[in-house]
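So, can you check this one?
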Amino acid sequence: MKRKFNNWTNHFFNFLAVILGVYLAFYINERAKLNQDRKESRLLMNSLINDLSDDIKTYEEYQIPKNIQYQENLERLLNLLLSDNLDSLDSQLSSILGVENYAPTTSTYSSMKSSGKLSLFDDLALQKKLSDYYEGQVPESVRKGEFQVEYFTNELLTWLTNNVDLMDMEILKKDELVVLKNKLIIYSSLIDQKVKSYEVIVLDSKKLKLHIESIL
């Protein structure tokens, strides 16, 4: 009887050891996966911070100042047109030929979304901020730049081709200057809208960057 009891006890402890071993293996694997996910999420957040930092620097140090300067050049052209100062107009026409656009870096976010790794971020507020920024504000800002290029190509460049000797930058058809003035007014407005969107992008980029840094 005692031998049977010992056999039963051995079977029980063997069974318990197997159960504990399986549970422990699952626990270790789960912990390892959590640690791996945590490391990967930190790498992704650092990559996002680098993307945002580069974009902010590009906007503040080049794109915004360059586009503001471009606006000022167009304003001088408009003033020459309004004052009928045609002698100086020819020498300033070349200032129309300058388009500076920029699209924020979206490679890290796009990769995260396509691979499902956006879920690695436990912070739901961060997920929403990333979605609003990269899928809302960024495409809208890019479209403003594309609209400017489209207007420049279809309207201003066409006008210059038809009415200006581009080799000498000399206006050939003075009676078309009213058309140029109207086109420049519209074009300057498009650039102004784009610059304002760039300024908003910079502000929101800084807020998003601070949010990510606060989690790390």
The chain has one domain: 40-215. DSSP finds five helices and two strands in the chain. The radius of gyration is 31 Å. The helical segments are 2-82, 86-92, 107-115, 124-163, 177-215.
